[in-house]
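Q: What does the assembled structure look like for these inputs?
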Amino acid sequence: MSLAVELPGLSLKNPIMPASGCFGFGREYSEFYDLNRLGAIIMKAATKQARFGNQTPRVAETAAGMLNAIGLQNPGVDKIIENEVPFLANYATPIIANIAGSTLEEYKEVASAFNAVKEVAALELNISCPNVKEGGIQFGTDPEMAAKVTSVVKESSNLPVYVKLSPNVVDIVAMAKAVEQAGADGLSMINTVTGMQIHLPSKQPLLANQTGGLSGPAIKPIAIRMIYEVKQCVSLPIIGMGGITTAIDVLEFLLAGASAVAVGTANFQNPFACTEIIEELPNTLQTYGFASVKDAIGEGIK
Amino acid sequence: MMRKENMIIKHTRIIALDTIEMVLENEYISQNAVPGQFLHLLLTGHMLRRPISIAQVNKQENTVTILFKVVGEGTRTLASNSIGSTINALGPSGNGFPLEPNAHSTALIIGGGIGIPPLYYLANELTKKKINIVSVLGFQSKDYVFYENKFKQLGRSIIVTNDGSYGEKGFVTNVLDQIGAFDCFYSCGPLPMLKAITTQLKDIPGYISLEERMGCGVGACFACVIPAVPSGGYKKICHDGPVFHTKEVQLS
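A:
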């Protein structure tokens, strides 16, 4: 059973990777299993300067999911390149750098910082973080802005660029087409869905940031629907994400049109989520009559 | 090192209003846990695990005792588990209290409400090292008081209730001037209490254990951070803590 998938810049031994922001820079989970087993690793978002992020509480549990408002906390792109990439470079697993910013200039600087880092195989362009006051989301909700930031990053980078789309839009297909025309090499979808929870004892929003991004199984149907729609209108490969916890979920994403997937919130419940899914996937594919991962991609679209 | 382990519930009982004591059996965690560490418990029907501190360990019987207060959906689910059933835990998690004072020195233990449990395991271990213990334990009211006799067996203890329905009336900080000399302190409880204590005892070496809503519980998600000293840095409560020296973190 072949689990291998070829994507722009990425030769994946299997289609499973931890999602950005849910896996730090890999060190913590490397104490549970060998990171060589993963298809790829998407690092936590990098910005130009270090960011502390939002006040706490930063997470809240919901039915079948969770809200988070971390706020892009990271040590800054230079420190990530200096301290985190060398650790991940010990593994034969492609590294995808997630990049974020508040301005076009910042995106450009962060993207170009990775040009000299041969261990990084691709960029995931975060235009859709809902949890920072400036930047991120406005690039992710306006097709023109999304196209602009995509072309700026493509011009400054020598790496394949996967644009991570926000579900918090009226027309996801318009967003996907805009970044495709701007030169994106692939799509990553979906980011979290903006939500809120009120804390009854205080009668106020529970998260210090008030709103947060909903993730987990609660958003899986939204992700499936959006991938299914986008796949029919653009020719870019899609890394799918949103509530994946099992190999069956992975197959659903493949059928909807994803070529690979990222696992996020499930890692918190089960640190072995990614490796258990990798172990389970061949059986699941076989059960539904597929001889490889490639055979299943887009098969749900008639 | 933390592992993902199944723990069997051996015993459970209500020890005060809304407060449950649960004894869990697991060899690896019981043999490796130190005072101040916690379990990150997976609860049926819940997306996020719940961090619960370790209140006592019995290495002969391979058991770990936890105490928790039923305050929301997660703790309600935890309380509904019956004896003989299994709970999945990541543990032992985090870093414990340094047991650094010399023998025959005096350590002050200051606990508030459901922050008291990790201090009980700590007090036992300090006593084994011939360190004198004085405990100040604060509760909302008489109905919430637990482990009074257990702490009394380890040394002098003072109970304080906010409403004066049992022991001294007021806050733990009201009685600190009755203690006499002590060499260091250890504290866990609500944030306002920790702030008051660390201000009042700023010249004495002390360790505090912090809590926060957690995501992964292993240091990867950055949900449970606290500003560090010097300013600009941060610590992850689950991974760098939950125990910190008072001079390491800024309580807001």
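Chain B has a mean pLDDT of 95.
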